[in-house]
Write a structure and sequence with these properties.
The protein is an alpha+beta fold. The chain has a domain of 108 residues: Aminopeptidase, CATH 3.40.630. Strand 3 and strand 4 form a beta hairpin. The longest helix is centred in the first third of the chain and has 15 residues. GO terms for molecular function: acyltransferase activity. Keywords: Acyltransferase, Transferase.
Length: 173
């Protein structure tokens, strides 16, 4: 049986930027090794090379930080009221429920903001977690990062409690 640990959530602080950038890079290089080649992982991880832009992206969203043992262990951000922009956990806590905890919290926040559905552009490595938590694949996509192509899946989850008869299938009124 896995090691038991205590995890908590707190809001993002601008001073978290460098630590979360490290988690972002480490998660991509370690956890996505079986799904993306070296060039793809390098291109993807380069989004954290501009520390100011990376921190600004997190600050511009509703970003939560997962804390395990007093240290940041993962993060997730909600763009607007209904789109999960980022979800990354440090490899040392992968598979221990940190990602599910972060997604659950964003789901509650999205519901409180009046969202009828959550959407996310999900990497191949994270698609199993999202699927397990009720997200359904909508379409396969590829994105170009500096001439390197990465595959991902657009996913969607209908939220309970905010269903409106005037809502379109895309979840927007």
């Amino acid at each position: 049986m896995g090691q038991q640990f205590s995890a908590g959530l707190r809001p993002f602080l601008p001073s978290d930027g460098p630590v979360l950038a490290d988690i972002f890079r480490e998660a991509i290089h370690v956890l996505a090794e079986d799904d993306y080649d070296d060039a793809q992982r390098d291109a993807w991880a380069s989004a954290a090379d501009d520390a100011e832009a990376f921190t600004g992206r997190l600050a511009g969203n509703l970003t939560l930080v997962a804390v395990v043992g007093g240290s940041a262990a993962g993060f997730a951000s909600l763009r607007g009221k209904d789109h999960i922009d980022m979800l990354f956990v440090h490899p040392s806590v992968a598979g221990q429920g940190v990602g599910a905890m972060l997604l659950g919290a964003l789901e509650k926040l999205a519901t409180a903001r009046g969202a009828t559905a959550l959407t996310a552009d999900v990497s191949d490595v994270a698609s199993h977690l999202f699927g397990k938590l009720g997200f359904e694949p909508q379409r396969r996509e590829t994105v170009d990062i500096d001439g390197v192509w990465l595959g991902r899946t657009a996913m969607r989850k209908q939220l309970a409690g905010n269903n409106d008869k005037n809502t379109t299938p895309g979840g927007r009124q």
